[in-house]
Write a structure and sequence with these properties.
Blueprint: H1 4-17, E1 30-36, E2 41-50, E3 53-62, H2 65-78, H3 83-98, H4 120-137, E4 143-145
Parallel strand pairs: 1-4
Antiparallel strand pairs: 1-2, 2-3
Bound molecules: zinc ion.
Zinc ion binds near residues 36, 41, 64, 66 and 125.
Length: about 150
């Protein structure tokens, strides 16, 4: 039988070793920092918004494999989306990693992180990038923590 779990792990390991959009974004007009004290994950998320749409997004930081892979996957999914669409995607992503009966349809590659649900301590690692992104989009120039 095809081992989906192994595939998911491979995707996470790949995104951790070769994170996408992992760079400083000089043209960014929104920047936020995120910190997860439970695990020590630190991220800076850069966003360039044009006419209400995420034109470009990147991140920098250091953290565990889950936090880096989640940030990498997130940047791949939100380009071209409006802040409202990003909110909806985050809500569905959060539901996937925290709810007992999540809806995972339509989350694409983000679904590789569904297994985090079984490790409550890692949920904050998986959602750190999203919380930081949300803070950047709402233009609160501050450091968010998952606490
Ligand atoms: Zn972590």
């Amino acid at each position: 039988m095809f081992d989906l779990r192994a595939l998911y792990q491979e995707v996470i390991i790949d995104h951790n070793r070769h994170p996408r959009n992992c760079r400083r974004l000089d043209s960014a007009d929104r920047i936020a920092e995120g910190y997860n004290p439970l695990c020590g994950d630190r991220l800076t998320v850069y966003v360039k918004v044009h006419e209400g749409v995420v034109e470009d997004v990147s991140f920098e930081g250091s953290g565990c494999a889950i936090s880096v892979a989640s940030a990498s996957l997130m940047t791949e999914h939100i380009k071209g989306k409006t802040a409202h669409e990003v909110d909806q995607l985050f809500a569905r992503f959060r539901s996937m990693v925290t709810d007992a009966t999540p809806t995972e349809e339509g989350l694409g590659k983000l679904e590789v992180l569904a297994g985090v649900r079984e490790f409550p301590a890692r949920v904050k690692c998986a959602t750190l990038a999203w919380h930081t992104l949300k803070s950047a989009l709402s233009n609160e120039h501050s450091t968010v923590t998952t606490e």
